[in-house]
Amino acid sequence: MGDWDEFVGEEWVRPNVALAPRTTYKVGGPARWLATPRNLDDLGLVGRAVVEAGVPVVVLGRGSNVVVADDGFDGVVVCLAEGFGQVRWEGTRAVAGAAVALPRLARAAVERGRLGLEFFVGIPGSVGGAVHQNAGCHGRETKDVLVSASVWDLRQGVMTERSVEDLELSYRHSNLADHEVVVDASFQTTPGDPGEGERLMREITRWRREHQPGGTLNAGSVFKNPPGDAAGRIIDAAGLKGLRRGRVYVSERHANFFVAEPGATATEIWELVREVARRVEDRTGIVLEPEIRFVGAFEEER
Ligand SMILES: Cc1cc2nc3c(=O)[nH]c(=O)nc-3n(C[C@H](O)[C@H](O)[C@H](O)COP(=O)(O)OP(=O)(O)OC[C@H]3O[C@@H](n4cnc5c(N)ncnc54)[C@H](O)[C@@H]3O)c2cc1C
Which residues, in sequence order, are CB contacts of 54 under 8 Å at separation 6+? Predict the structure, then answer.
């Protein structure tokens, strides 16, 4: 892997690291290299090496919206270390490192009497992942509260400040490329009663417990909702609850959640996703688009 091999000596870059434990599905193979940069200098080194060695790169947050291929990822996976896990306040704005867990950000804001980020309590991702996916729930999306994000371009070695418009955030979408790493993000909050924020967070948590298959291996909603409809309703109406491929099945509780049993493979998830999409299209003409991201090589690309 050319120049990349020079990084073996760095303790924050390791070869052949299992990715399954870093994802909520707990499936898939290793990263050829896992880089856990602690600061911007480390990110600069990763970027230069990636460019010189010409290897593919992908960023991993808390792995709550990805499926890693059984053969793993034949390139560099960048996973920001704790150095990117701080929250600081600038007036009513929370500036959160990209590695900060969204529920932690929601609670920290409410404790401070800063409201507006409560919806993040139900999303088990990171700030970086939320910006990349424009994560949202309960009527709110990241773009409603995001002021801007600092983005490090691994190829150019430069940082830019991107607004919601620059990022082209829309339903579960941004224009960020794989070599662009969200480093931190600034969120607007409103001063308010912490009790009110706590009530809303409790309500969101209760709703999720009732409507989602908690305590199982999944990555949240598998498909995006088509305009004016819900993917879960469509899959349910097509009679596909309980459909399975190996050790992966469509949840009985929420048809847009596909649950993996211990020992499941990424291929089984991939096959179930394709099968459900195929049957829904056959029956309704609706083409469902995956919300979860497949990282590495899956059948069509082999
Ligand atoms: C039980 C459960 C419930 C969920 N509920 C919701 C919900 O209500 N609403 C919702 O929107 N999502 C939901 N999700 C999905 C997921 O939590 C979100 O998409 C979240 O934003 C992903 O963040 P992550 O850090 O886990 O990203 P990952 O899964 O690690 O990565 C997702 C994508 O973001 C990119 N990425 C991650 N970090 C960075 C970074 N620092 N810079 C650039 N790119 C980055 C990755 O390359 C990848 O393309 C749910 C997931 C689960 C398991």
Answer: 2
User: For 249-275, what is the mean pLDDT?
Assistant: 97
Q: How far apart are the first and last CA of the chain?
A: 21
For the segment 279-300, the average pLDDT, to the nearest whole number, is: 96
pTM more than 0.85: yes
Residue nearest to atom 20 of ligand 1 (CA): 125
| Candidates 3.40.190.10, 3.30.43.10, 3.40.50.720, 3.90.180.10; CATH matching 2-79 | 3.30.43.10
Orientation angle between helical segments 102-111 and 194-211, nearest 10 degrees: 150
At residue 2, does pLDDT exceed 70? no
Write down the catalytic residue from 32, 172, 245, 251: 172
- Catalytic residue (choose from 150, 174, 221, 251): 221
Give residues (CB < 6 A) around ligand 1: 24, 58-66, 80, 98, 122-126, 128-130, 132-133, 135-137, 176, 181-182, 218-220, 293
Task: Give the confidence band of 152 by pLDDT, cuts at 50, 70, 90.
Answer: very high
Rounded to 5 degrees, what angle do the CA atoms 185, 54, 78 make? 35
118 is catalytic: no
Between 3.30.230.10, 3.30.70.270, 3.30.465.10, 3.90.110.10, what CATH number should domain 85-210 receive? 3.30.465.10
Q: Tell me, yes or no, if 210 is annotated catalytic.
A: no
Calculate how far, in angstroms, residue 128's C-alpha sits from the geometric centre of ligand 1: 8
The answer to whether residues 29 and 54 touch, using CB atoms and an 8 Å cutoff, is: no
Domain with CATH 3.30.43.10 in the chain: 2-79
| Per-residue pLDDT, 302 | 45
Question: Would you say residue 83 has pLDDT above 70?
Answer: yes
Determine whether 300 is an active site residue.
Answer: no
Compute, in angstroms, the gap from residue 78 CA to the centroid of ligand 1.
15
